[in-house]
Design brief:
CATH superfamily of the largest domain: Hypothetical protein af1432
CATH class of the largest domain: Mainly Alpha
Shape: globular
Radius of gyration: 32 Å
CATH topology of the largest domain: Hypothetical protein af1432
Helix content: 40-55%
Distance between the termini: 56 Å
Strand content: 15-25%
Number of domains: 5
CATH architecture of the largest domain: Orthogonal Bundle
Number of helices: 31
Oligomer: single chain
Largest sheet: 6 strands, antiparallel
Strand order of the largest sheet: 3-2-1-6-5-4
Length: 766
């Protein structure tokens, strides 16, 4: 393993010696010619604007001062001796060093704000915080480059991916070697805990502050796209950091801008390009901070459901399975809000076995509550029904934020009798819990009656409250992840994909040919609003014209066409499997539709120019030039990206995702597939068993024959199992509720089907 640079070690020693002089510092710097040259370069650079050149190192040291020389010397020696080269091509050391340097510089700005007593110590700790990655690359028994590649397709944070493969993270490994190199204990601790929870260790104030500074500076750099790899993973901020450093007590944006300014002045010495200040997006930063808080709760908190299971064990009560595993793991991997809700509803059905259960979300315009996700015996009757703001048990919870159990609704004045009408049965017992994060309530989980006819208990309410807390965090995490993705990939005014999305879409030949075909066309649509409209009638009039064009493009597009807003007044349409003739036809359709959309009363004639191009596989290399050269002077859109509060847009998002889910499952016949499968059943109430012959099967319903009635009635529950006759011979186990009986033929609905019935889905499509 590499040794820590000798010059850096001596500089750390001298920094602790209160009697050390600048002359002592100069002697150490002189022992390394590389540092000497860089010191003279910096002191004679335009940054200092000296009238005459300094050629003596002792003079330069006096001019720059102890702190500046120490930072530069330690940085240079660590970079040259340890960080400069490595094994894995995928591990870009220049990118890595830029990250370390930016984290170190940003830490100095944070130090100024919070008054940490030893700024240089923070600088060095941040400079070394990721040294474990270098050690893994130099001598790791696995290829660290492959780990980096795996991270790009993994839902896990970097540190968790390392631990799953190696057993240790780069934080543990870095801290171990820092201690072997006899570095100060505070530096070792800061390196070790910059990805770990540390509150339980009861460190003194200065250690806690130093760890928090490293933690926060590292996180902020990742939010700005300045990570140690060319990938962005969702950052996680330890809860201790927010307790130690109050994020709203100082200007974080100012710190980042100052970091940009300082790093730009020294980047030429390391030969890398630093992102311009225009790339620092305040809204993106704060959205990331909010997302990090969600990740924090989700990642660091003790699993509340597991906590309840432990309490159950003490009380002698048992749960049907490991809820922490069944609920927590799938939630952490859910990519959409609908996936989160489906997972929660499935597990609620397994745990509580209610007759009816639902999630109500707030309708943004009216504040009414909407039954957004409904499961149970008469779910179609309740799906989409709205309750006026504050009505019923759910309305009470949406207002107060308190979980509620009602053992007998007949005696509770808060209960809304209208719900009975929609469910089609008499409601007896209810438990409800709010979906909220902090004081922000955006929904309610409501459970109605048990299959067993037993009432819900206070113990049930405690479990549901914990599940609701877990679910709310996962919902908010998915929501802000989606919001950040939209900011990055879509134009805020039109909703079309943006320029970055276009460049990404045409960057890989194989992907382009697979998506758009070996022959496809491009339409470049340009409308000049800046002088004709904006200059005379104002910006809002220009936006109105632009919206008319957007509406025309949406109405004339074909199902597989991709539309991008490339610039302020420029759009690009990619037309899969389209020859020149069809591209010309679409051009005429757009021009005609736009002409009709613009009213005759317009004082200024509006014209759009559309340039069609047909591209073959052989022309792919010229594809980007085809667009970039003629559009090199296109102005970017004036964007005002905002992220709407979750309660104001969650319900519309669920509706959109549900529509997409329906379109994605169109290949599966809604009426079901005719089959011939054998199985058996257990009557839930009577416990009688029997054999069944399955004749009709879909994702939601089943039709089967039984040899005799077995006293089965409509609305009875049965547990069934049968084996598919596909190649995998998959066993399907479900609970069903009987809907119709004709002689010995029974039609039933699946009571609580799992959200991802892959085996059954593939079988029905085959």
């Amino acid at each position: 393993m590499p040794s820590f640079p000798q010059v850096a070690t001596k500089l750390l020693e001298i920094s602790k010696d209160e009697t050390a002089s600048l002359a002592d510092l100069a002697k150490i710097v002189e022992t390394d010619s590389g540092i000497s040259v860089r010191v003279l370069e910096i002191v004679n650079s335009a940054m200092y604007g000296l009238g005459s050149k300094i050629t003596a190192l002792s003079e330069a040291v006096v001019f720059l001062g102890l702190d500046e020389i120490k930072k530069l010397a330690i940085g240079m020696t660590v970079f040259e001796k340890m960080f400069k080269s490595g094994r894995a091509k995928q591990f870009d050391r220049l990118l890595f060093w830029r990250h370390c340097l930016c984290v170190a510089v940003l830490s100095m700005e944070i130090v100024k704000e919070i008054g940490y007593p030893d700024p240089e110590e923070a600088y060095i700790a941040d400079l070394l915080h990721d040294v474990g990655k270098v050690l893994l690359d130099i001598q790791g028994r696995i290829n660290y480059g492959e780990v980096i590649q795996d991270i790009s397709v993994s839902a896990d944070p970097v540190i968790e991916k390392e631990r799953s493969i190696i057993g240790l993270g780069h934080d543990d490994i870095g801290a171990f070697f820092c201690s072997m190199w006899k570095l100060p204990e505070k530096l070792v601790v800061a390196v070790k805990y910059h990805h770990q929870s540390f509150e339980h260790l009861n460190f003194p104030k200065e250690k806690t502050q130093l760890i928090s500074i490293v933690f926060l500076a590292n996180f902020l750099c990742w939010t700005q796209g300045i990570g140690s790899f060319d990938i962005i993973r969702p950052p996680i901020l330890s809860p201790e950091v927010e307790k130690t450093i109050k994020l709203d007590s100082f200007d974080i944006i100012k710190c980042i801008l100052q970091m940009n300014k300082e790093v730009e002045t020294i980047s030429e010495f390391y030969h890398f390009v630093f992102p311009s200040m225009s790339q620092v997006r305040e809204n993106l930063l704060w959205a990331n901070l909010k997302l990090s808080k969600i990740n924090t709760k989700y990642y660091y908190q003790e699993d509340p459901v597991t906590q309840i299971q432990d309490e159950n064990s003490i009380k002698g009560e048992t749960m049907p399975f490991d809820i922490g595993l069944e609920l927590g793991k799938p939630l952490s991997k859910a990519k959409t809000i609908k996936e989160v809700l489906d997972i929660v509803m499935y597990q609620v059905g397994c745990i509580f076995q209610p007759l009816h259960w639902s999630i109500l979300l707030k309708e943004p315009k009216t504040g009414d509550m909407v039954f957004s996700v409904v499961v149970g015996t008469n779910k179609t009757k309740l799906q989409g029904v709205k309750l006026p703001k504050g009505e019923g048990i759910a309305g009470h919870i949406m207002t107060t934020g308190e979980s509620v159990i009602v053992e007998n609704v007949a005696t509770d004045k808060r209960f809304s009798l209208r719900v009975d009408k929609f469910t089609g049965f008499k409601i007896r017992s209810i438990i409800c819990s709010p979906l909220k994060t902090d004081d922000n309530i955006f929904g309610v989980i409501e459970l109605i009656n048990r299959i067993s006819d037993d009432n819900f208990t206070s113990h049930d309410l405690k479990i549901l409250s914990s599940i609701a807390e877990y679910a709310a965090i996962a919902i908010e995490k998915s929501y802000y992840n989606m919001a950040l993705k939209n900011i990055a990939t879509k134009d805020s005014l039109t909703g079309f994909k943006n320029k970055w999305s276009f460049e990404r879409a045409v960057s890989n030949k194989d992907v382009v040919l697979k998506k758009y075909g070996t022959i496809f066309s491009i339409l470049v649509v340009e409308i000049d609003l800046s002088q004709k409209i904006n200059g005379t009638m104002g910006r809002s009039a220009g936006d109105d014209i632009l919206k008319k064009l957007v509406q025309v493009l949406k109405e004339t597009r074909r199902r597989k066409d991709d539309i991008f807003r490339y610039g302020e007044d420029t759009f690009i349409i990619l037309l899969p499997q389209t020859y020149q003739e069809d591209a010309d036809l679409l051009k005429q359709n757009i021009l005609s539709a736009f002409s009709l959309a613009i009213s005759k009363e317009e004082q200024i004639p509006i014209q759009i120019n559309i340039s069609p191009h047909t591209v073959s596989a052989a022309d792919f290399d010229q594809l980007k030039d085809l667009v970039e050269k003629p559009l090199s002077n296109v102005r970017p859109p004036l964007k005002e990206d905002t992220i709407v509060d979750i309660e104001d847009s969650l319900q519309p998002l669920i509706e959109q995702e549900s529509e997409k889910e329906i379109s994605d499952t169109k290949k599966i016949p809604p009426s079901g597939k005719t089959v011939s499968l054998k199985g058996n059943f257990v009557h839930l109430k009577t416990k009688k068993t029997g054999y069944m012959s399955v004749e009709k099967l879909s994702l939601e319903t089943i039709g089967f024959k039984v040899v005799k009635s077995h006293s089965i009635k409509v609305n009875d529950f049965l547990d069934i199992q049968f084996t598919l006759d596909g190649m995998k011979k998959s066993l399907v186990e479900r609970r069903i509720v009987v809907r119709e009986i004709k002689d010995n033929y029974i039609t039933a609905e699946f009571y609580n089907p799992p959200p991802y019935a892959k085996d059954l889905g593939f079988y029905l499509m085959s």
